[in-house]
Amino acid sequence: MLVAGFPAGSLGANCYLVAPGAGEQCVIIDPGEAAAAGVEEVVREHRLQPVAVLLTHGHVDHTMSVVPVCGDYGVPAYIHPGDRGMLTDPQKWLGIAPGTPVFGQAKFVEPDDVKELTDGVVLSLAGLEITVDHTPGHTKGSVTFRTPEQQDIPQVLFTGDLLFAGAVGRWDLPGGDREELLASLARVCLPLSDETVVLSGHGPQTTIGRERATNPFLTEAAPLSVKPRGM
């Protein structure tokens, strides 16, 4: 599997392109502020053919470029219905006045084709099988995307702003909830094997095992979780 990522914009939100390999179809995860040029560069470098944009949540640092990217490649955007309203009204969910410019832009619209995600659905896109888990806490409509467990190929979990290396996403913005976030960590992250690779919305790559051992929020969530897979 090919995963190419880069931090986009002033907040360094990670954008990922995922494909079975070079020269094949791909999905784009979280094209945020000023991400369109980076997407184009990765597509050209690896000869990829985008088929969809997947959004872990609706905050504008992860969605700012969704309209131009979807338009460039003629592809749909997938988002949980709990966060769909952020595509057209990001200011409300950042706790700022309507019409306030965000990253220099005041008016926002949806892509032409928006599809809504549901908990547990398995997306068959670009030759990939991607499981969607609803993970409220950072926002009401936050989700993670995970690849299947395969022999000799580590599972990959795209966590958005649920889980970072050594930290978790903030819960103090409208729609955030600390207890929901801890429950999402317990239900979705802790049952995974230690070898699962975590690619988050900000910051470096990590693993579930590393976070299980060192992340204080996973320690706090552990009493709510089930037994980890493979243990």
From TrEMBL:
<dbReference type="InterPro" id="IPR036866">
    <property type="entry name" value="RibonucZ/Hydroxyglut_hydro"/>
</dbReference>
<feature type="domain" description="Metallo-beta-lactamase">
    <location>
        <begin position="12"/>
        <end position="202"/>
    </location>
</feature>
<dbReference type="InterPro" id="IPR051453">
    <property type="entry name" value="MBL_Glyoxalase_II"/>
</dbReference>
<keyword id="KW-0378">Hydrolase</keyword>
<dbReference type="InterPro" id="IPR001279">
    <property type="entry name" value="Metallo-B-lactamas"/>
</dbReference>
<keyword id="KW-0862">Zinc</keyword>
<protein>
    <submittedName>
        <fullName>MBL fold metallo-hydrolase</fullName>
    </submittedName>
</protein>
<keyword id="KW-0479">Metal-binding</keyword>
<dbReference type="Pfam" id="PF00753">
    <property type="entry name" value="Lactamase_B"/>
</dbReference>
